[in-house]
Amino acid sequence: MTLDDLKITHHFGGGVYVKQTFVPANTVLEQHKHTFDHLSFVVSGMVIVECGSERHAIHGPDSILIKAGKSHAFNAITDTTILCIHATSVLDPELVDQTLVEA
User: Fold this and answer.
1) Is 45 left (phi over 0), alpha (psi -120 to 50) or beta?
2) CATH of the domain at 76
3) pLDDT beyond 80 at 3
4) FRET label pair with 97: which of 7, 10, 34, 56, CA 20 to 30 Å apart?
5) pLDDT value of residue 99
6) What is the pLDDT of residues 52-90, one digit of tens each?
7) Exposed, middle or buried by CB within 10 Å (0-12, 13-18, 19+), for 17?
8) Cβ pair 19, 86 in contact under 8 A
9) Within a domain: residue 36?
10) Number of separate domains in the chain
C-alpha cells in the first residue's frame, strides 16, 4: 500500500492544519520527520508508534507528542484513524507535505 492508497482528508482553519488519515490494519506509515513539534491523535484503533528509538502502543482515543527532528512511523495493528495536527499558513493540500515534512 502507498500513501496514495490511504484515505486522507485535509482540514484547514485558523493557522492550523489537520491531516486525517484512515490507516487499514497491518499498514505502516513510513518514517519521516518534521522541523517542529506536533501532536498526533489516534482517534480510533491501535497503532505502534516508532519515534526515534522508542516504541509506544497507542489505543484511540489518545495522543502523542512528536518532537522536532525525530523520525516517526505508525504501524496500524487494527483499522485506525489518525489526526496529525500542525501549525502552518499553507492552505493547499498539494503543497502542505512539501512544507511540513523534512527532506
Assistant:
1) left
2) 2.60.120.10
3) no
4) 56
5) 84
6) 889 999 999 999 999 999 999 999 999 999 999 999 999
7) buried
8) yes
9) yes
10) 1
